[in-house]
């Protein structure tokens, strides 16, 4: 093995991996190595907030996964972008900071104990956050991660959207991470000083200044190395050269909801019969590895507007030049923000105990996409507006399955979207609610016509066929190496230790006991924060 010695090897520099590196190295005693398959996050379109549209199909920073053909999505094969660079998906995402509903962490406590419950999560978030709006009983101030209040340079259509949604009965909410999640308002963002505030920027780069932290980029871990059932290091490939590195204390996999189960299975930890069929020696028969894949599904409804939208300024060359100059010279304008300025959470039935749907407001439209690029920077040649939504807690479950024992071959992603009657019924109710918003003043008077799916689509059968054909992942895969106290329902225990092994943990979105109601970057960082505390205490 390579002669350098490390106490901890962290596989993956995503949201959780960056937090692990910072927290585990903070006392200066533990030697920490982070191994990342991708490269640096110091790229213009990574740092520029709206630049994530340019990263959607960029193989330099993106794993470019594709799911299997899905009957629930009218047979479509969905594109699953995941970050392949320092910061992981926090370096290519839409930067919305949502913790989830407080009751989501009651669900986590039910599955994994009080270390993951509501009180523990609130305490950790308040330690993590440096909230621009200020600290209070719910929000943190002075933590390592700056959270923008996102009040500057709002598009003029934001207020009509919020007011129209209020007219439907949904209240205005100034803080979705505060006392209540339900309502409509402006999204907080992981943006600082007109630059993306990824997990790499907030956690990893400060840690890299320490002498006890090393980072290997452009290096893909191909296998966890075991002596018996104890993880002792990793095998890797870097620029075509294969090597091995030993971990004196623990190996921590933080490769995400797709990469973590794949690496476990490649290393002999997973469903025993399936691994043996691939010619992989079984270290631990762990049938839950790769199972329970959970992800939010969503789609947009789109309207032609009577008033200008971002289409008018972001489509023409002169408009691009103007917003580019504004960004470079003043750090403002649309390029300094996510496209999702506002949104909210609502219930499709008043009988529900908590919101089950999330809204996204976008003052632009992209019915005419350019090949090979998510067309945020090349919208339609007319003023358009979109309102998107996604389900908060779908009951459909998929799985991650090895396609082969080759570590450089992507696994099969079987999403099984809309495979339950529950998920279909709530999405049907939700898309009808989008039309209620659009029909409410003051927004209704600004709309020229509905473009997608179009006014001719009216019946339940037509609406269901439309959302099956046009829906897709909202990029929140999770739960594939599920954490819990019950060995029959989980792959790792509440301290993130992989069942059937020693010296091996998983710490990322794959260990979520359940999918939270909202964007998943915040809970991924939370898992890294709480997980690092558990690991550090175990070493003392």
Supply the key terms.
alpha/beta, FAD/NAD(P)-binding domain, 2 domains, 540 residues, globular
Report on the structure:
Helices cover 26% and strands 21% of the residues. The chain folds into two domains: 6-44 and 199-293 and 478-539, FAD/NAD(P)-binding domain (3-Layer(bba) Sandwich); 151-186 and 297-391 and 419-470, Cholesterol Oxidase, domain 2 (2-Layer Sandwich). Strands 1, 2, 10, 11, 12, 13 and 24 form a seven-stranded mixed sheet that branches. Strands 7, 16, 17, 18, 19, 22 and 23 form a seven-stranded antiparallel sheet that branches. The chain has a two-stranded antiparallel ribbon with strand order 3-4. The longest helix is centred in the last third of the chain and has 19 residues, at 521-539. α1 (15-25) runs parallel beside α13. The chain has helices spanning 15-25, 44-47, 102-112, 118-128, 158-167, 199-208, 256-266, 272-277, 310-314, 317-330, 421-438, 460-470, 521-539; strands at residues 6-11, 32-35, 65-66, 79-80, 129-131, 145-147, 183-186, 191-192, 195-196, 213-216, 219-227, 230-238, 241-253, 269-270, 284-285, 297-305, 342-346, 357-362, 384-391, 399-401, 412-414, 447-452, 472-473, 504-506. With 540 residues, the chain is an alpha/beta fold.
Sheet with the most strands, sense and barrel status: 7 strands, mixed
Mean pLDDT: 96
Determine Rg (CA atoms, Å): 22 Å
Number of domains: 2
Show unreliable segments.
Answer: none
Count of DSSP-assigned helices? 13
What is the CATH architecture term of the largest domain? 3-Layer(bba) Sandwich
What global shape is seen? globular
Please write the CATH class name of the largest domain.
Alpha Beta
Helix content: 25-40%
Percent of residues in beta strands? 15-25%
Total count of strands: 24
Q: Structural class given helices, strands, pairing?
A: alpha/beta
- The N- to C-terminal Cα distance equals 27 Å
User: Which fold name is given in CATH as the topology of the largest domain?
Assistant: FAD/NAD(P)-binding domain
Fourth CATH level, the homologous superfamily of the largest domain: FAD/NAD(P)-binding domain
